[in-house]
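Reviewers of the previous submission asked for a worked example of the structure-prediction workflow described in the proposal, so we include one complete record here. The input consisted solely of the amino acid sequence. No template or homolog information was supplied to the procedure at any stage.
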Amino acid sequence: MGLKKKADPIASSCDEFEEKRQYPRTTQQLVSDLDSTDRDVRRWAVRDLSGQKGAHDAFLKRLPFEEDPTVIEALFSALEHDMSESHASQVLTMLKSEHVQLRNGAIELMQQNPGVFAANVNLLMQDKDPDTRIFCVDIIGAVAHIEAVNWLHQFALNDDNENVVGTALDKLAEIADASTLDILQTVESRFPNHSYIQFVISLIRSQVRGVDE
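From that input alone, the workflow returned the following structure tokens.
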């Protein structure tokens, strides 16, 4: 019987990754690796830098230039913990990015960090870009914060953009309480001819009164 040639062992993906990590893993080298042309090297650099002093600054510096979806996801995951107000301010600038994954990542990161988000709400409310204000409303609608309803009231009462107000009312339809009834007439009078805003206001009234009955 003829001898069969043994198949060459196939290197696992982990082995391939490890081969790319055989040089010294100093913090300086890892930060440099964030700009590598190899996405695997960049992704491993994110993993190895996580938790180190100054890592968040390096990640935030890299994010606007990163194009690989898996690396972007790794960067946002690494930023989830120990966010400072300064870091939050940098993340919120990504709400203006043309890159959809960066915008969505910034929204999700703020939803996971309600404390640092709260410190920036008033600034976002005054942003000149209505799209940025809408993103702020989206975050408020999902964030677990005691002031969430009050922030939505402020948008509904004070914002001049009908799309922003409509989005704020959409979120109030999900989380409104009895205090919301006090502002609805004022909001109604601000947009008397806007059919959708009028519809959502009626919906909120019915929902809140139904809960109270």
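Residues 146-212 form a domain with the Leucine-rich Repeat Variant fold (CATH 1.25.10). We consider this example representative of the routine output the project will generate in years two and three.
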